[in-house]
Amino acid sequence: MWSSPFITQPSSVSQIMLRVLLALIPGIALYVWYFGPAILVSIALASVTALATEAIMLKLRNRPIKPFLSDNSALLTAWLLALSIPPLAPWWMVVVGTAFAIAISKHLYGGLGNNPFNPAMIGYAVLIISFPVHMTHWLTPHALGGTELTFGEQLGYMFNGALPAGLTLDAVTMATPLDTLKTQLHLGLSVDSIRDMPIYGHLAGKGSEMVAIGFAIGGLYLLFIRIISWHLPVAFLAALFATAGVFHLVDPVHYVTPLFHWFSGAAMLGAFFILTDPVTSPTTARGKLIFAAGAGLLTYLIRAFGGYPDGMAFATLLMNICVPLIDAWTQPKVFGKKGGGK
Amino acid sequence: MKRIARSTLQTAINLVFFAVIGTAILASVFFLTHDKIVKSEEGEKLKLIMQIVPSALFDNDIIQDKLDVPASELLGTGGTSVAYRARLKGEPSAVVLEAVAPDGYSGKIALILAVRANGELAGVRVVAHKETPGLGDYIELPKSPWIKGFDGKSREVYKDADWKVKKDGGQFDYMAGATITPRAVVKAVNKALIYFGENRDKLFAANPPKKETNK
Amino acid sequence: MTLQEFKDILHNGVWKQNTGVVQLLGLCPLLAVSSTVVNGVSLGLATAVVMALSGAAIAPIRSYVPNEIRIPVFILIIAVLVTVVQYLMNAYMYGLYVVLGIFIPLIVTNCIVLARVEAFASKNTLLPSALDGFAMGLGLTAVLAVLGGIRELLGKGTLLSGIDLALGDMAKDWVLHVLPNYKGFLLAILPPGAFIGLGCLIAGKNWLNLRAERKRKSGATVIPIEAGCTPAMH
What residue intervals traverse the membrane (chain B) (predicted)? Predict the structure, then answer.
């Protein structure tokens, strides 16, 4: 089941997953610092839902519950999903998305190791297709000043859908930096004048750029301890950078810099934590390069020309479908078989 | 050789025979249902028009009283569109125009709008769009009453700066998270009203109906 | 036709060889129009009528059609019947006609129609052929109704919405708001909902088959798939 060749030290699935969870912590810490603690509630809620769904599905499938439940893979799915959706998402959205991810996109395909699609990204896709309005309500970072919700008020919104009297959603939430970019470009503004808006910082969106750096740091740790191979993040980031770079060079008025793309949306989270899911990525080194570069290209195309502001999730899922094909292509030919030698 | 030719001929005749019978059946069903189909289609069109033109506004056969409108930048139409004229006792009371908002979130949004003779909007409806389901589709009537916000508005009362969503300092509502769609619709309606202002006489005057039928 | 034959044909069409969940034929309309019960049942019944009529039309002439041109002739007859149904719906159920749109003329290309004509009507007499076509159509209608029901209930919280399009304005109040104040789950209404829903229905049918097999304690659990037409999306 767990046969990816890049694992150099023998580790159990649960240990690896635990390290990956650990690597998410810098990003989450920065998230809390800039956007408040609501995200922790989301993560906790998603984790509980994921474990409960996992247990129910294992029972229905007559599988042993304890060993599978403690492999931490459901927890990782839950965390990644919670980190991909707005921290203020109502509780039922978190539950529906996580349950769908675990039950349908993981267990109906045969459980861990057999799922062709990244469960967290399926959960995200289900939510953005089904509840697009809620998926646009992102919290405004502290750095921008303005009205801020206390932790209690955030909980009130998540569980009761109620905001404090006199506040509208517009006052406490905003569109993501990518979404704003798209909307403003649509209105005919140039990239330069959009970047001058207060929501943008040095690299991309204020606050969210720092969270992206946090995820990148965690990702580098994973690279360092060799839990993930360099092929995936490097090919993804390089492809995203190159595509964005070409468009930016040709028409800097309408296309933002490649760095902006790196540090906005789910690019960093995706590069180090989502594409690197060993179950849903190719097994060969060459396959990984193709897979991740394709995801980078698609992410850019969806961001720049597609119907949704961020393309990470859909790009990942589209490339997930191609994995069997990529594996077949890049598998080294067995010696002695016809057509093996070049 | 002769036998092959004969069997080919026989097959061909056979096929022709079935084709003729099929065509005969289709032709007869076509003639039997044609009037009813035309009536249903007109009825449906009338239903749509009646939604935005109050029946008290006209007594003419509005479906027949139509006018070809050439392509216009203000209407956003790339080709000829159709305008229907509502008249009360022979006096023009309203006109139904087709307009296109070219800059929706995912492509064009087709609208029809009814403008009263005094330049006031009687109503606007979205006929076709490709906006995100659940996000930008609140411009459709059954999903939300948003589009009714245009009723009674005119360029007399609202100046250019008012023809924007509230987020941009205008007078029109929008839903948080989806502002591109209403922006496109408001802009298109405003432009269509400008078109109406410039072409009012042409829209009403040309090609008067041959005979008014009382309904 | 004996009573037993009658029962066999009906059972075969509606359950054993069900087009939607066993043969997996004609999936494109199945997936596209099953967003509500009314849409699903309307297209299902239209297909059933076409299938019954084409069975009835082709069985009596089967011996006069030379073998080498039978496919064009069958398609011609089916196309005529579909167009007739299309005209009638356009004239008398305009609202529904607009909703079902392209999928009415596309009944011609639904390979289940030609498959049954080839497999059954070209070898049997009029009555069994008409019954077979109708039973197959009913089986499809049943799947469309269940799938439409699931998707509509999950997606909008209603049942029978749009029934006034089929039965006229008097039916406007028949819509059942099963889940009042339901926020809606768009996924169920959109295409992915159709795929997931159909997958669940097929799984359900297989499960019932398995259970029946186990009860009978016989070995085979393989469900035969009708040959003659690939289960592609038509």
Answer: 12-32
Structural domain total, chain A: 2
Which secondary structure element, helix H or strand E, spans residue A248, and what is its range? helix A231-250
Q: Is the pLDDT of residue C227 over 60?
A: no
Identify whether residues A245 and A315 lie together within a single domain. yes
The H helix count followed by the E strand count for chain C is 10, 2
C185 and A CB contact within 8 Å: yes
- Alpha-carbon distance of B112 to B202, in angstroms, equals 19
Given a contact cutoff of 8 angstroms between Cβ atoms, the answer to whether A96 and A127 are in contact is yes
- Which residue type occupies B148? K
**Per-residue pLDDT tens digits for B19-70:** 999 999 999 999 999 999 888 888 888 888 888 888 888 888 888 888 888 8
The domain boundary residue, chosen from A154, A173, A192: A173
CA A185 to chain centre: 25
Please spell the DSSP secondary structure of B135-161, one letter per residue.
Answer: TTGGGSTTT-GGGGGGTT-BTTTS-GG
ipTM: 0.74
Q: Look at residue A229 and tell me whether its pLDDT is greater than 50.
A: yes
What number of C-beta contacts closer than 8 Å exist between A and B? 36
Domain enclosing residue A158, as ranges: 9-173
- Is residue A33 located within the same domain as residue A156? yes
Q: How far is A295 from chain B (nearest CA, A)?
A: 23
Return the C-alpha torsion angle C148, C154, C157, C160, nearest 10: 0
* Cα of B94 to nearest chain A Cα, Å: 32
Domain end marker among A134, A156, A173:
A173
CB distance C155 to C189 below 8 Å: yes
Name C127's Cβ contacts closer than 8 Å, sequence gap at least 6: C1
